[in-house]
Write a structure and sequence with these properties.
This protein has 426 residues and is α/β, with parallel strands linked by helices. The chain is 38% helix and 19% strand. It is built from 13 helices and 15 strands. Helix 9 links the parallel strand 12 (306-309) and strand 13 (331-334). The radius of gyration is 21 Å and the shape is globular. The structure holds 2-phosphoglycolic acid and zinc ion (ZN). 2-phosphoglycolic acid binds at residues 38-41, 161, 240, 242, 310, 362, 364-365.
């Protein structure tokens, strides 16, 4: 049973304050929860409680969320059975009393929820993936890895937020990492030769200096070739457009080209890219309110492109249900802190899978040194993991953890790679 819950301020990969929660059990077992934080957040996400006091960390401190854990949440969960994750999460949701967890803070609730899961796994002497998956998790995910960063993660160096690679032809998890390594470094080389690399963006991808949105595609294709791979066969492109960030309610703004596109023109651009380049996956191609465009695009490309809703669904069960009913996409991005508890996240994944869609477990642009999501991906046999780029330890810790999980699974580990898409492509 839970003896005590404590919380304190730590710092994320951007150096912004976040919180860590410690759950202490009566037998002395502990578990920790480290909370990530997004930058291009969706309007339907659960509420991240920040103090907003200009004199404290420029408004970014999370002392109120920490107090909420130490006082209200700790009191409500004292003596509760740590293995009752769902009950515990429900208790916190009821205690908060708001639809978006804004009173106690989704960060306070999630940190506790993750710490509870970790403490429970430790108490059973299990790895987190075993505990979360009731021993059913065995699928090592296919990685979706960022090569170039843009949008809100690189001061709008490109209008597209993420240019990513998926090693669809890899025969093993190790091979996905090798292929990504080779392409990531080839892309850096190509960009440096042309004087187009400014540095590294928030998620570890290269921060480019371009004047239009076509250039990064050319670099990408050249990097794949230079690394010795065939685009469309060995590896495919994946984009996160994060289109809600471009949309003003009427038009899409391309800052880089100083252009405004109507929704119809924007649709045509998405279509053109999916026809011109070997794109296997596209995330948030339209704003989170533009259902008709999502629907049309899924009808047109859903048989050969994974269409992921991130800001569209925000890991929210109600929104995912509506999306499934309306056939808005064929995949859901899964982020723990968009919804704020471990059990709701597990429910969102199960719901997605039951509909015959694919979940993609994802990190945030502001990450920590924790690898909870690697365990979550394997526990649920989600099949895909998106963690930013192939650099910086807050990213690498997730890729590396999957190597450890695979080793721990031994014979039971499976890897199906690009075959995962057979589930949605018809
Ligand atoms: P965020 O970006 O964590 O800044 O929201 C990640 C994404 O859009 O997928
Ligand atoms: Zn996204």
């Amino acid at each position: 049973n839970i003896k005590n819950i404590d919380a304190y301020q730590i710092y994320d990969s951007r150096g912004y304050p976040t919180l860590e929660v410690e759950v202490l059990l009566e037998d002395g077992t502990t578990g920790y929860g480290l909370v990530p934080s997004g930058a291009s957040t969706g309007q339907f996400e659960a509420w991240e409680l920040r103090d907003g006091t200009a004199s404290k960390f420029r408004g970014k401190s999370v002392y109120n969320a920490i107090d909420n854990v130490k006082v209200e949440i700790a009191k409500a969960l004292s003596g509760v059975n740590v293995f009752e994750q769902e009950e515990i999460d429900k208790k916190m949701i009821a205690l908060d009393g708001t639809p978006n967890k804004s009173r106690l803070g989704a960060n306070a609730i999630l940190g506790t929820s993750m710490a509870v899961a970790n403490a429970a796994a430790n108490a059973k002497n299990q790895k987190l993936y075993e505990y979360l998956g009731n021993g059913q998790g065995h699928l090592i995910p296919l990685n979706e890895i960022q090569i170039l960063g843009g949008g809100a993660h690189a001061d709008w160096a490109t209008d597209i937020q993420d240019f990513l690679v998926i090693a669809i032809g890899a025969k093993s998890y190790e091979e996905t990492l090798e292929m990504t390594h080779n392409i990531y470094h080839a892309a850096g080389e190509v960009m440096k030769e042309k004087g187009k690399c400014v540095g590294i963006a928030d998620e570890g991808g290269w921060w480019p200096d371009y004047s239009n949105n076509e250039e990064p595609f050319e670099v990408f294709m050249e990097a794949i070739k230079r690394a010795g791979y065939e685009a469309g066969k060995d590896v495919a492109l994946s984009l996160d457009i994060a289109a809600s960030d471009l949309f003003d309610g009427e038009n899409y703004h391309l800052r880089l080209e100083n252009k405004k596109l109507t929704p119809d023109e924007f649709y045509e651009m998405m279509k053109m890219w999916c026809e011109k380049y070997p794109i296997i996956s596209i995330e948030d191609p339209f704003a989170d309110t533009e259902f008709d465009y999502w629907k049309k695009f899924t009808q047109e490309f859903g048989h050969r492109v994974q269409i992921i809703g991130d800001d569209l669904f925000t890991t929210n069960i109600k929104r995912i249900k509506e999306g499934i009913a309306q056939k808005l996409a064929n995949s859901v991005l899964i982020k723990l802190n968009q919804i704020g508890t471990v059990s709701e996240t597990l429910e969102a994944i199960a719901l997605t899978q039951k509909a015959g869609w694919l979940p993609v477990v994802s990190a945030r642009s502001g990450e920590t040194e924790d690898a909870f999501i690697s365990h979550l991906a394997v526990a649920t046999n989600a099949g895909q993991l998106k963690v930013g780029s192939f650099a910086r330890s807050e990213r690498m810790v997730k890729w590396n953890e999957n190597l450890r999980i695979q080793r721990h699974l031994g014979e039971k580990a499976t890897f199906i790679g690009g075959e995962i898409y057979e589930n949605i492509f018809t």
